[in-house]
Amino acid sequence: xxxxxxxxxxxxxxxxxxxxxxxxxxxxxxxxxxxxxxxxxxxxxxxxxxxxxxxxxxxxxxxxxxxxxxxxxxxxxxxxxxxxxxxxxxxxxxxxxxxxxxxxxxxxxxxxxxxxxxxxxxxxxxxxxxxxxxxxxxxxxxxxxxxxxxxxxxxxxxxxxxxxxxxxxxxxxxxxxxxxxxxxxxxxxxxxxxxxxxxxxxxxxxxxxxxxxxxxxxxxxxxxxxxxxxxxxxxxxxxxxxxxxxxxxxxxx
Length: 253
Fold this sequence. Notes:
Helices cover 28% and strands 15% of the residues. By secondary structure, it is an alpha/beta fold.
């Protein structure tokens, strides 16, 4: 039996949640990075006794399309999987349900699902510092319960996840990072971008048609030279202030 941590974590929040859960399940796991646009995900095959944890951020209440596409290429072969949706304290809506449907179609057997909060990837003032110590205790308790399901090979036949079919349409996020004058052309952003929206020859520019506003480039830039429009950020913060005001709880299914 092998443990796998399957991640799409542009700014690190999803990985923080996944690592807390994974550390309660096993001492060592194999990581599969869904951010890697050059990886051959179709070649990744699992066994029925394997345990996977698939963690994605919620973008507008949905699984990021590129992450779902790459997950769909995996060959589950009956491997057990824990579903994890991480969101920035607004709502995760159809994310877990879409993740469950996609992984079942890829041959995985969902045994548990977690919705968890992490610092918002764009509007950092929302859920700032999360997962915090309270979150860690909750997630570790979730992990202990999931470990019992694994040990006993028991899980609900239906996880009863919230959401809607068909999923609500994803309208996109009109926030595209661009390079500033302080850009040194190190190409870090171009190498990391999961969809190839940044040309290494012109790293200050971003292909708006490709960009998914994941903010991986902003988080990784060593010079802090990737920015989004301050006016659009302020407008977005004002729009989401009420929805993100209360502390949302983590959930286990």
